Every structure is written in C-alpha cells, then in structure tokens.
Amino acid sequence: xxxxxxxxxxxxxxxxxxxxxxxxxxxxxxxxxxxxxxxxxxxxxxxxxxxxxxxxxxxxxxxxxxxxxxxxxxxxxxxxxxxxxxxxxxxxxxxxxxxxxxxxxxxxxxxxxxxxxxxxxxxxxxxxxxxxxxxxxxxxxxxxxxxxxxxxxxxxxxxxxxxxxxxxxxxxxxxxxxxxxxxxxxxxxxxxxxxxxxxxxxxxxxxxxxxxxxxxxxxxxxxxxxxxxxxxxxxxxxxxxxxxxxxxxxxxxxxxxxxxxxxxxxxxxxxxxxxxxxxxxxxxxxxxxxxxxxxxxxxxxxxxxxxxxxxxxxxxxxxxxxxxxxxxxxxx
Length: 332
Ligand code: TXA
Ligand code: MG
Fold this sequence. Notes:
By secondary structure, the chain is of the alpha/beta class.
C-alpha cells in the first residue's frame, strides 16, 4: 500500500524512513525515492521498486553540510569551497567514502555521491528521520524523472510506502554531479549548477566532453543507461526557425499521432498535442520531463522537439533531451 500525504504529515513519513520504509519526496530538482542509506534491506527496496540496475550507485542526501563528515573520507579544500557556495542546493559532489557507507549504496565504488538539498520537504524529512537518505529519482528506471507527486504515483504506486505531495520541483532537472578527485571540479552530469558558475571559483573547471555518448565505463555510472525516455519516439530538430517550422509541419501533415514540443516557433495545425517548452532554457528545463509524460498521456507516437544550443542550464536540457531522443537529432 502506498499512502499519499501532504507535508503536514511529514513526521509520519520520517518515521517510515527510520523504520526502513520507502518514501518519495520533492526536492528542488526532481522527486526522490528515499530510504535510510545505512539500512541495506531498505536500500535494496529502492532498486527493486525502480527496477534499477544494481551497478548504478545512489546519491546520499543530508540535511546539513557538516553531515558530510559522517559519509566522506578526506573532505578537500575544493570540496569545502563548493559546499560553502552551492549547498544547500542542486549540486552532488563525489567523495571518497567512509568504510561504514554500505557498498550497496555506492554500487561497490569506493566513492560516495552526497547532496544537501535546499527544498523544505527534503531537508525536513532527512532531519526528522535522523537518518541520511539514499535517493535516486522517484521514477521507474528509464522513464522521465518525476517533477510532481502524480508522476511518482503513475510509476511507483503500490511499490513504495509514502508519497509526500508537496512543493513543486522548481528546477525540473536532476542535480549537477561533479568529480573533484583531481582537485579541480569536473562535471559528470550537467544541471542547474553550471560550468560557468564553477569557473568563477575554479577557472580550470571542466566538463565531461560528450555527455550524449554512451560509453560502457562512464565515471558517472548512471549515464550509460537509457534514460528519460517516454513511450513515444522523440526526434530533436535544430536549425533556423523557418526551416524547423517547415520540416516539422511537413511531418505533422504526413504522419499520424505526432506531437510537437516547440521552442522558438508555434502553430502546428493537426498535431495531436503541441506544447511550448517556454521562452528560455530555465523554463525548458522545468517543463521537459512533465511534457514528455504528457505526450504519452495523449498517446502521441512521435514527438518532434525544437531545440537551440544554449549555455548555462541549456547544457543540461540538451543532455536530457538528447538522451530522451536516443540521439535522434535532425539539423535542418
Ligand atoms: O537531483 C538529483 O540528483 C536527484 C534528487 C532526488 O536528488 N537524484 C538523482 O539520482 O538524480 P539518480 O540516482 O537518478 O542519479 C544519480 C546519478 C547517477 O547517474 C549515478 O550513476 C551517479 O549519480 N552517481 C551516484 N553515485 C556516484 C559515484 N559514487 N560516482 C559517480 N557517479 C555517481
Ligand atoms: Mg534518475
């Protein structure tokens, strides 16, 4: 049985975490599916509920930055600067793990990913449970990450103990994951903490060169799996707005069951569903996962998604969108 509660009953959900239960909760990025990181049976339950491969490690969530010292060995000066600047917030830092952190959480790696979320519900849940919470995104493995309680319900109802229907996920894409083992931050998964922001503190900060590429041994294990995919096929269309408009219009006319995710143009008569991704990349980020799910709800078979290369959080949008499209990109 899954109980859906509001944050007024958060105490009850925190108790469930303390007792080894599974609780879905909002964060500022996406909904997480949480369990006590030090309870191996509970952590196993996360992998089972999501259908997540066991070699994909989990992020451990803490309520206060100083809690990192219970999880990480050797917190470097680089880490301290990042923690001071970006925590609480949408940044996950990879540390050498303490031996007490269960291998199940880190998929056998000797590192642990730690994040201190800024969202009220997330920090309150961690604090009230008196645990550190291991939490991946609260979706079925492979499907778009959830940004509302309804998305979680659609994927996991009956498989977890609680869903806290609470604050919206204001960013809409998962946290930036960074590796600091070389002393200089390197982005493994792009997010709302951007390379530009990191470069202000560390001019030599870098980024995995091609997030879109599927390699067998990426440093961020989750990046190799099929991700963020709706049931509909997705094709990303890039080019000047006239060419994009005429390319997609011809598809809408000649194919059935077409949906369009617009960015710079609009007005596709005959599409099953047309949704505007927004006016800038922050809005695109916030809307992307919700809209991918909406196309499925309307039984759209093929989504044409307009996109423009932009910096900042645009890099993260590109990463998620290209993955949703299985790298099916058309330049017109
Ligand atoms: O915003 C977020 O990060 C959300 C919310 C719930 O906090 N969580 C999230 O978790 O996106 P998940 O499990 O969906 O993605 C975690 C990513 C995966 O790609 C995983 O491989 C990577 O972080 N990761 C976890 N531990 C790691 C480690 N020790 N070294 C390298 N990558 C790691
Ligand atoms: Mg995920």
